Amino acid sequence: MSPHAKLRRWVPVLIAVAALPLGCARLAGRDGQHPIENDQIRFPHATHARAGVACLACHEEIYDAKTMAGQFLPPESKCLECHKEKKAQGDCGFCHRDAAHPGPYPQVERSLRISHASHIDLVKEDCSRCHQKLPEIVSTGPTVPPMSTCTSCHEHAVEMVAGQCSACHVDLRRYPLQPVSLFSHQGDFVREHGPMARSAGEGCAECHDQTFCADCHARTVAMPIELKFPERVTADFIHRADYLSRHAIEARADQTLCARCHGQTFCDSCHTAENLTPQSSNPRSPHPADFSFPGSSNSHGPLARRDIASCAACHDQGAKSICIDCHKVGGVGGDPHPSGWTSHHPHDEINRNPMCSSCHQ
Amino acid sequence: MWLRDRVWRAALVAGSLAGAAVAHAETIEASSTTLVSGRPDVRDGVVHTAVPVFELVSVRATDFHLPGVDDMSVVMSGWGAVALGEPMEGNRGLGDLDLAFAEAKMLHRRVAARLGRQLLVAGAGRNLAFDGLTLTVRPVRWAGVSVEGGAPVTPRFGTQRGDALVAGRAFVKPAFDGEAGVSFLQVLDHGEIARRDLAFDARLVPVRSVPLALSGFALFSLPDQRLGEGDVTATWQVERRLEVSGDYRRTAPDLFLPRNSIFSVFSQETRDEAGGYLYAKLKPWLRLQGDYHVIVDASGTGQDASAKVTGRFGPEARDTAGLESRRLTLTSSGYTMARAFAVVRIAPLIVATGDASSFFFDADVNGHRQSWVGAATLAYDFRPRWRAVVTGVASVTPFVERSVEGMAKLVYQLSTQVRQVKQ
């Protein structure tokens, strides 16, 4: 191939790779600056409480709220009922932290499911039963009610045993991952997560939905996960780097490894393109020269006994499979069944199982 | 034609589910990934250039408020691709649905139903993807039954192996971190049995005060009356900085073939693997992990050992660097792997990664004994929820004398609460 032809081959690659970052730069904005942080409302809860303002006087909507979706913070008109002179004076900084860019309340992602409507009467409209700490102008740490306020009334153990966190928690994925005792994600988690998910899948599902599993385990994925996430160099991925060169060794090390995810003809689709199967346009045998000779060091018999899945990956064409020519009843290859076969496959199975008739005609 | 029908059908289902979800859910989480890669694709000694453009979409909608339904979610994950250059699969347009299901929990979450394309993870399922229905009933919190019915999903590049599936699992769950179940799975292919398995699984914490977890699994092939797969694992978290584990696994490779395959009659060999791993956080910034397993099969005994050291450096320990090695020894082959990797935050919004791997093979692979691969990535979080990634990979391998690959990726992550639904 001429140098020019080589160069031409890479032109579409270079254009495609260059186009995406350029597109991103446009999306980022003309000056590349980030949007201004949202304004925050300066509201001293303690001052209002001391003045005897009831919570529900401002948070009217919460009284009937059966879910946490929506906006339960008071509208500006509610503030202006008492502080309209500040707005008239143009004193935006009285309420808005960023007076130059005043804005509404920032949208907050809710992490809990709770019906205020069914709780407010139970606590006799005493919101402080749960809301022990409220936002102030000078931030003093998290103000979300601690879980102990829930468990002081609700029996948590039952839901905990059942693994049904989603009754209250929107999901647990938003919490920072900690190595939870007995569900540790550290160490060789790639090896360990399978047995864990097999028997405790509901626990996994509290943080990971099936899209997480499907990244690796779906049978229809677009690409291996290490191609999808090249930036995750600290993660343990099975096919990382030059898997093509070592795939035969890995398959020999664990004959079931490939079969767990890949369809039986997965190998065949590549090997056919590589002219390594009988279905290829110009087939070449990938087997050693003495592969067909019983007793030779590379005889196919013992190899097939040990790793029959590899044989099937290319040669399974049902009743037309290559093995039948020699190993059918009366064929030169003799009986291929392993010892003890008839102990759990009685002779009359031949009449019941259509597959048997391929050899036992 | 078949593929085109499949793509259209998948798109229709996905569109319907996504549309319904956006229309009624309160919380929508969505991600979109656009990915362009260019790589040399070697086919029978000839180098072709493949330039696929992928669009991967995932949508999860939750918090529906329907009468009589405690929780409901709709999940859809799928992809489409246009192959530029010389496509490997011979098709310019490709696409499929990985998942697409709706799930509802009712009667105080004692009954759950999931309908659509999903994974069967628990028990005998072995992560089997299928189109169908899962119904789970928990008459009491600590025990229940699930049943599944449908058709297995045909794997990509694979042919259909099974057109009907029925499965079930009965389980007891005495604690959040403990569960035991017995499960059954049958796959039929044109009326013939492709799989008929009975499995037992368990994960237990024997003593509450001791962080020792035991898990076990045994899957029996009913037609062959043999163990297809079995394993036991003990994991002891001595403390948060130290964890050790021991495991043993036996598999029968021939039982991973469909029972109606002609190749299922040729072998009854087994493969055994035993070993353990160690994880230690030696310093707040230094982690060590290693594992060792002995492999025994009909060809003899092999060994598989690996070690990985990871350190965190820089301001606020935001940078990571590590070394990794693996040695796999089999009777007729094996290799040694050495790898170095690093993640460096070069600016508040820009992360660079580097990854270099080398493989030294015990026997010739296509006439060569070594393989070298280097990769570098630049990721830029250019706006909240947006990330652009550019990757370059260079390699010298037994199958490609010299290779340079490029990839660009644009990711958008959305999580929003759409609206309040008045009841």
Structure description:
- The complex is a heterodimer of chains A (361) and B (423).
- Chain A has 18 helices and no strands.
- The two termini of chain A are 54 Å apart.
- Among the domains of chain A are: 45-145, no CATH class; 243-316, no CATH class; 322-361, no CATH class.
- Chain A has helices at residues 3-27, 45-50, 55-58, 76-88, 116-120, 147-151, 156-162, 189-205, 210-217, 225-228, 243-253, 255-261, 266-273, 300-306, 308-315, 322-327, 341-344, 349-352.
- Chain B has 423 residues and is mostly beta strands.
- Chain B has a 22-stranded antiparallel β-barrel.
- In chain B, 39% of the residues are buried.
Strands of chain B, count: 22
Radius of gyration of chain A: 34 Å
The dominant shape of chain B is: globular
Indicate the radius of gyration of chain B in whole angstroms. Answer: 25 Å
The H/E string of chain B reads HEEEEEEEEEEEEEEEEEEEEEE
* Strand-residue proportion of chain B: over 45%
Terminal Cα span of chain B? 47 Å
Task: Give the helix level of chain B as a range of percent.
Answer: under 10%
What structural class results from the helix and strand content of chain A? mainly alpha
Q: Please outline the major beta sheet of chain B.
A: 22 strands, antiparallel, barrel
Low-confidence stretches of chain B: 419-423
Briefly note the structural class of the backbone of chain B. mainly beta
Distance between the termini of chain A: 54 Å
Count of distinct strands of chain A: 0
Element-by-element helix/strand order of chain A: HHHHHHHHHHHHHHHHHH
Give the fraction of residues assigned to helices of chain A. 40-55%
Note the overall shape of chain A: elongated
On the 0 to 100 scale, the average pLDDT of chain A is: 78
- Bin the strand percentage of chain A: under 5%
Q: How is the quaternary structure best described?
A: heterodimer
Query: Could you describe the largest sheet of chain A, including whether it forms a barrel?
Result: none
